[in-house]
Amino acid sequence: MKIYFHLNTGGFSNTYIIANEKTNEAILIDPGKLTEEIIKRIEENNLKLVAVLVTHNHNSHVHGLKTLLKIYTPRIFGADLELNGDKTNVITGDGTLHLAGLLVRYMNLPGHSSDSMAYQIGNAIFTGDAIFAGKLGSTNSSYSKHLLRRNVEEKILSQQENTILLPGHGPPTTIGAEQEFNSDLK
User: 62 in helix, strand or coil?
Assistant: First the structure.
């Protein structure tokens, strides 16, 4: 498995391409903006884009989806039907998917938004806006903050310390670093 990172300067959000080097299939997470660099990465590596995983339906994470679907025919996964209408594979709760020859674990993490999801592939968790390096995601109420914190603690921070967290904004981090330094978790 190889992970490619792309920073979308429009909303300063992160897009990730996860490539299975054995099958040449790929998964894209959060198409905030479809750029020439992303297309070039897919095309130059002869990747077949089989799925798009959306962490939540905010513009900085899905703005490039319509353009992407004009070029490729991936299956769309997320917790909001509005992503791509009846062509969206709506996922709820926690579970697993087999995509691009990889096992993808998905986790529902409401709090930042009602449709927030995180995806774990191997030793990496793509957290969207649930947790960043040094802080939890923003919320609209004290209840939402409590709910988000509880879900992050139970579903993410309960994993091995060396698990890599790849957030929707900002730099990567690890579970160990967040347990030690994240001020929102103290």
Answer: helix
